[in-house]
């Protein structure tokens, strides 16, 4: 079904809204079919109060109804939702946070606002600033079970004088102290996974090794799927957001990002993204940031646009994001990158978006391309080609 046929079935006011806003019919054949399908749903009256919960679930990971850009589908949905949302009280509105965020984003777009004002689609006050915080269930810490006491006979054996070994009157069976020595020795040595140093067994003078020894490689970077569950502007910096991002841990991480002038807060709310999770925490104008949001910057520079790198649809917070290729995809990231070794700074120049908008790392030595992905697909930038990632 074509868009023109679907639009012709719409209520006159919604039809005029689409015409006046000059929204895109879709940039590809597949997108055009999906846009027409959404418009047809609106025309058939399928967007109603009983379906808002389902629509809310569908919009959890979407900024727009179709693909990653504004289209006629969004205008039609806005027109259908307007009478429903405007009749709800704040408690009902806050019960569908993704739909509320979507509706507010669309009604705030300049082309929609201009057309809506001409057609008496008034601005709906949603009271987003008074919305209750998203509840996150955190499992209580498990209590450590106390080890059972040793039997009295064992205790007396441990405290008894060491017995002499037959055939060697000077040697003693000093087993308990030996075990303690071995334990202390193990506790004193930092494990290799945490960047500790380990002596060679032969001669005790082996070279010190660490998990970040050698040339920096992409698999040292801990990339994960993140989900913004709360966002506000930094109280002391006009250009910074302070986000609470779920990266699959017991508590969300506080993250500060300088995106205020490049991505509207409405497009950041409830967003799924890729987070760099093993940078050293940094103070950003009095707020400590515990991760970094991975973004694509246009090849013309920031003025050309900045976009969040997006994981595949259906991704879950904390899912592993990795680099394709046998030499990297099974690597274990560092627990924390040492700022002095400039690991991320060395790797970052190879980060880019391909002609397909897919995020990738290009090896500067071999020119091999390693796409950035999860188990379900490749991460992408919405529109930017040839962009650098940071």
Automatic annotation (TrEMBL):
A GO MF term = tRNA binding
Keyword Membrane listed? The answer is: no
Instruction: Give positions of region: Disordered.
Output: 134-218
Carries keyword Cytoplasm?
Answer: yes
Q: Which residues form the GST C-terminal domain?
A: 1-134
CDD domains cross-referenced by the UniProt entry: GST_C_AaRS_like, tRNA_bind_EMAP-II_like
An example Pfam family from this entry, by short name, is: tRNA_bind
Q: Name one GO biological process term.
A: translation
**Biased-composition ranges for Low complexity?**
149-166
Q: Which UniProt keywords apply?
A: Cytoplasm, Protein biosynthesis, RNA-binding, tRNA-binding
Which Gene Ontology cellular-component terms appear in the entry? methionyl glutamyl tRNA synthetase complex
The TRNA-binding domain is annotated at: 217-322
Where composition is biased (Basic and acidic residues), the residues are: 172-188
What InterPro entries does the record point to?
Answer: Glutathione-S-Trfase_C-like, Glutathione-S-Trfase_C_sf, GST_C, NA-bd_OB-fold, tRNA-bd_dom, Tyrosine-tRNA_ligase_regulator
Q: What is this protein called?
A: Nucleic acid-binding protein
Q: Which organism is it from?
A: Coniophora puteana (strain RWD-64-598) (Brown rot fungus)
